[in-house]
Amino acid sequence: MDKKKLKERPRQKKLRDRLEKGISRLIPKIVLNGHKIRRLPNFLNVAILDVEGEALLLHLDEYGIVANTGSACNSESLEPSYVLSAMGNPYEFVHGSIRFTLGQETTKRDIDHVLKYLPRIVEGLRRISPLNLKLDQKKMAAPLAFIGNQTPHFLRNAKIKNQKSK
Amino acid sequence: MTSRKNKPDVVNKITGHSWAYSKIVREHFFKPKNLLWENPNTASYDGQSLVGSPACGDVMRVWLKIDAKKDKIKEFKWRTFGCASAIAATSMLSVMVTEKGGLSIKKALNIKPQDIIKRLGGLPDRKIHCSVLGDKALRAALNDWFKKTGQFQRIEVEGAKLIDPNTKTTEADIEEAVLEGATTVEAVQKRTKVGIGYPECLPQVEELIRFYREKYFDEKKSK
C-alpha cells in the first residue's frame, strides 16, 4: 500500500500542478489559497475574483465537473469560510473560492476537461457581475451588509454563532 | 465525468434542508433575461441602483427606463454577483416588471420577495435571503428616479428606524434576524440584544417579527 501511495502522490501532484498552471494561464485575476509549496498534493484551492462560488459550481456541474466552495472543513455553511479568511484573504475573495480535489481515478483527460470549460464559465459569470475587484486588495472594500447598510452579520454575530455551534 | 441530466435532490444530512432548485430557477440562472451586456451608458437610463456588498456575497446593479407619462417601467436591466438564487431572482424580477408592456410603478413597489419566489417555483429555505436583494435594488433605482425628477414625496427609505436606542437596534436588524431564522422575540433578542434594559420596545419588536415573517415566509395563513 505504501508503494502505491508513493506512486500516487507525485502523479496527483503533477496533475494538480497542470490544473493550477492551466488556470493561471487561462483565467485572469485568480489568487491561490494556501502555501505555494507546502500543501497537500491532491488539492487546488483558488479564488476567482468577481464571481460567486455557488454559481460557478452549478455551471461546472452542467459539464459533469465536481468541485467545492469554501474549505473542506466548512463546505455546508453559506457563510464565507473562516479557514480561508484566517489565511488572510478578504471576504470578497473567499466568496469566489473554489476547491478541486483529485483522487486515484482522476486522469489527465479530466484536468483538461476542466481547463476547457472553466475559463468560459468564468468569463460568462464575469460578464453578468457588477464587480471589478482588485487583485492587490488586502482589506474588505465595503464592510456593509445588504440590509440596512450595516456590518455583515457574520462579523457582528461571530460570538453568538460560535456559541450556537458549540 | 458524465453529465447528469436528472439530478437527485441534495439534502443536508444534519438539518434535512433541501438544496435543489426548481426548473424555473435553473432556467433563469442558466439563461438570465434582461441582462445588461454592453457597458452602461449612464445618461440613457432614468434610474439606477447598486445594492449589496461583495463581502457578503451578493451585489446587484439595476438600470431602469421609465415611461414618465404612464408612470410605468419600460426597461429593467441588471447585473448580479451572487449565487444561483440571487441571479435567478433578479432575472425573474426583470421579467415581472417588464412583461405585458411594463408594470406601473405603484404595482412595482408592491412586489414582495415572496412574489418573486412564487414565480420561481420556490427556493430552498436557506436561500430565501438571496432573493431579497432584487426587490431592494428595484426600490433603490425607483428612489433614484424619484429624486432625479423631483418627486421627493414618493421616496421611501426603509430599515433606518431605530427601535431600541440603548442597543442601537434598528428595523433592519430585526429584518436580518428574521431572515436568518430567528422567528420569536426570544430568538431575535438573543441575536440582537434588542429590548434588554428597554422592554418597552418589545411589543413593537413582536409586530416587526410578524411583519417580516409574513413578508418573507408567507405565514399569514398557517399562523
What integer value in Å does the Rg of chain B equal? 19 Å
Shape of chain B: globular
Put simply, the count of helices of chain B is 8
Number of DSSP strands of chain A? Answer: 4
Helix content of chain A: 40-55%
**Fraction in beta strands of chain A:** 5-15%
Mean pLDDT of chain A: 79
Assign a percent range to the helix content of chain B: 25-40%
Describe it.
The complex is a heterodimer of chains A (166) and B (223). Chain A is of the alpha+beta class. Chain A has helices at 2-26, 53-62, 82-86, 91-95, 108-127, 153-156, 158-164, and strands spanning 30-32, 43-48, 68-69, 97-101. Chain A starts with a helix and ends with a helix. Chain B is α+β, with helices and mostly antiparallel strands. In chain B, 38% of the residues lie in helices and 14% in strands. Chain B is built from eight helices and five strands, in the order αβββααααββααα. In chain B, β4 (162-164) and β5 (169-170) form a beta hairpin. Chain B is globular, with a radius of gyration of 19 Å. The chains are: A alpha+beta (166), B alpha+beta (223). The A-B interface holds A 50-55, 58-59, 61-65, 76, 78, 80, 90-92, 95, 110, 113, 127-131, 133, 140-148, 150, 152-153, 157, 160 and B 1-4, 7, 12, 14, 29-30, 32, 35, 37, 50-61, 79-84, 86-87, 126, 132-133, 136, 159-160, 170-173, 175-176, 179-180, 190-191.
Provide a concise account of the structure shown.
The complex is a heterodimer of chains A (166) and B (223). With 166 residues, chain A is of the alpha+beta class. Chain A has helices at residues 2-26, 53-62, 82-86, 91-95, 108-127, 153-156, 158-164, and strands at residues 30-32, 43-48, 68-69, 97-101.
Features:
heterodimer; A: 166 residues; alpha+beta; 4-stranded antiparallel sheet; globular; B: 223 residues; 3-stranded antiparallel sheet; two-stranded antiparallel ribbon; 5 strands; disordered N terminus
